[in-house]
Design goal:
Helix content is 18%, strand content 28%. With 312 residues, it is an alpha/beta fold. Helix 1 packs parallel to helix 2, helix 1 packs parallel to helix 6 and helix 4 runs parallel beside helix 5. The chain is elongated, with a radius of gyration of 21 Å. The structure holds flavin-adenine dinucleotide (FAD). The site of flavin-adenine dinucleotide (FAD) has 43 residues, from strand 1, helix 1, strand 9 and helix 6. Its cofactor is FAD.
Length: 312
């Protein structure tokens, strides 16, 4: 097909996280000979998906001592391969679901598939400022996280002041959740009002462990002199007055939303207003019969490895 190497398959799986690999393990064991495209830095995430961007995963059953995210995804991949799933480290850039069999394209391959499982996940949005990154001088995964539910219970946050950036329902939920662990939680919001639902706001305002830093953005994260390379605090700028204040915290959680990886679909299946694939309630069926969606690409509520694996 147009000079591309062409493959025919019963099932093509797009993605590389727990949803994609669970689907691959089940399909391979059912002798459907699935082809899986794990992407090559698709959405700037390594093959393996979001878990490759974190350290210890402590809430995935079967690993009582926790497991590194990268090791867990390596295990998923090995298990898929063990049962014969064929894995390509390429990103699917285009699809054609207008007729059966379905067609999918990477830069070098075309796939003709009877069925498709979309498991391309989502990306937790992050902010960039001095100290927010990885490596030397940055506190990503050393105090800064984009997932309070995943990381909030870590010992470095216990009994310490914490902060959340955001103003929507997730920010309210994450701040409330973090009060179980932190000594107090500051929500930093760039406006003078939240867009979260009223009930979520009320819960936050009624919680004595939460305070709100209105009209403010974080301009810098700095380290804790005593504890080496972990987060010690933030420089927070009031966008109205221009004043910069110091906020001592041991944890900072971005709760500014996720972006589902659905652009490459070009409208081939129905998406909701936030860009997530719409599935029929209680199933993984999309608007196109024979095309299924699993994991975070169709789930903006639970967004956990175990739920992604469950739908896969
Ligand atoms: C920092 C952080 C820490 C987390 N910690 C935990 C935790 O401790 N416990 C927990 O349960 N959950 C945790 N999560 C959430 C968990 O990682 C996700 O819920 C889960 O990984 C979602 O799995 P998924 O299969 O939907 O896909 P994802 O993990 O989102 O992976 C999908 C992957 O598919 C690939 N892809 C995307 N587009 C294409 C394409 N067009 N072609 C080919 N490949 C493509 C990319 O590599 C992409 O990353 C964490 C998330 C983050 C961001």
């Amino acid at each position: 097909m147009n000079g591309l190497e062409t493959h025919n398959t019963n099932l093509c799986i797009v993605g590389s996280g727990p949803a994609a690999h669970t689907a691959a393990i089940y399909a391979a064991r059912a002798e459907l000979n699935p082809l899986l495209f794990e992407g090559w830095m698709a959405n700037d995430i390594a093959p393996g998906g979001q878990l490759t961007t974190t350290t210890d995963v402590e809430n995935f059953p079967g690993f009582p001592d926790g497991i590194l995210g990268a090791d867990l995804t390596d295990n998923f991949r090995r298990q898929s391969e063990r049962f014969g799933a064929k894995i390509f480290t390429e990103t699917v850039t285009k699809v054609d679901f207008s007729s059966k069999p379905f067609k999918l394209f990477t830069d070098s391959r075309a796939v003709i598939a009877d069925a498709v499982i979309l498991a391309t996940g989502a990306v937790a949005k992050r902010l960039t400022f001095p100290g927010s990154g990885e490596g030397t001088g940055g506190f990503w995964n050393r105090g800064i996280s984009a997932c309070a539910v995943c990381d909030g219970a870590a010992p470095i946050f216990r009994g310490k002041p914490l902060a959340v950036i955001g103003g929507g329902d997730s920010a309210m939920e994450e701040a409330s959740f973090l009060t179980k662990y932190g000594s107090k939680v500051s929500i930093i919001h760039r406006r003078d009002a939240f867009r979260a639902s009223k009930i979520m706001q009320q819960r936050v305002f009624a919680n004595p462990k939460i305070d709100v830093v209105w009209n403010s953005t974080v301009v810098e994260a700095y380290g804790d002199g005593e504890r080496g390379g972990v987060l010690g605090g933030l420089k927070v700028k009031n966008v109205v007055t221009g004043d910069v204040e110091d906020l001592r915290v041991s944890g900072l959680f971005f709760a500014i939303g996720h972006e589902p990886a659905t652009r490459f679909l070009g409208g081939a299946v129905e998406l909701d207003s936030d860009g997530y694939v719409v599935t029929k309630a209680g199933t993984t069926e999309t608007s196109v019969a024979g095309v299924f969606a699993a994991g975070d690409v169709q789930d903006k509520k639970y967004r956990q490895a175990v739920t992604a694996a469950g739908t896969g």
